Amino acid sequence: MKATAEAFANIALAKYWGKSDVALNLPAVPSLSLTLDPLRTQTRVEFDASLTHDELLLNDTRGAGRTLARVVHLLENVRKEAGFGTFARVESHNHFPTASGLASSASGFAALAIAARAAASLPFDRNKASALARQASASAARSVFGGFVVLAAGQHDEATLCAQPIFERTHWDLRVVVAVTTEGEKETGSTLGMEHSRTTSPYYEAWVANAPLYFERVLEGVRTRDLELAGEAMEESTFAMHACALAASPGILYFTPSTLAAYETVKSLRKNGVCAYATMDAGPHVKVFCDANDVDRVNHALLQTSGVLRTITASPGRGAELIQP
Length: 325
Ligand code: PMV
Hints:
By secondary structure, the chain is α+β, with helices and mostly antiparallel strands. It is built from 9 helices and 14 strands. The strands form 2 sheets. Strands 1, 4, 5, 6, 7, 8, 9, 10, 11, 12, 13 and 14 form a 12-stranded mixed β-sheet that branches.
């Protein structure tokens, strides 16, 4: 009744922001991501008849509140499918900053879904694990798969309940240089941020109408390995998502001066002939997509940028897997 899984974070090139069904956690817009090695979470699940409730240890700290509630909800779904009522002990380790816009919920819930299903002796099924992870965090549905992954806008049908791998990680040997600008937790989590945007931002409808257009351009750019095409569409998707959040009432601002400084660095790299494009999620870090040959120049420039604490260079990663504990 125990299993351990490992999953990697993912970064969306075409962003998901907003839900079409809050109860089922279905996204309102299609998104496309790249799974990233080495942004890794390792999660162990053990169903234990001596427990009187589910327990969570996240980076050696006892989990509580909303995080624990999401874990319990996922475990409830697994127990329902497996047909037993035993509680579980969950231990999870993120090998990068937690809850600061570095997609730790994506790798965390993907690893949890894979490990919990295996610990409950349910058959290994990526689509089912992806649909299970999606209910906790929609971006987690994508981290179940490796390489380039699509999560469609939720339509209440079987096909859009889980993410879909579209190109293997070997399709395009890109690099993502993450400029880490804080080691702390973010103020407004993505779930709250996108709900607040949906209910109060006058730009929300425009975002939902335009997101599929950014998605199509990103998809074409990825399909043809055209960094300029994918990168320009990715930056537009990023800024449209943040504009939607900024216009909420009260506004949500995820950028810090360091975020803007890192973005300026990316623009000046481009002026100097380096093909590099940036994206930011619900946090202040800047993720820079570039060719493998340009990694040193991008790294060097980011490390000289005010407020950039360190960088992590990531490559296309594989999907979530069961591992030996
Ligand atoms: O699924 P969540 O709640 O982690 O939301 C993720 C939202 C963004 O990271 C901002 C965009 C995305 O598509 O990953």
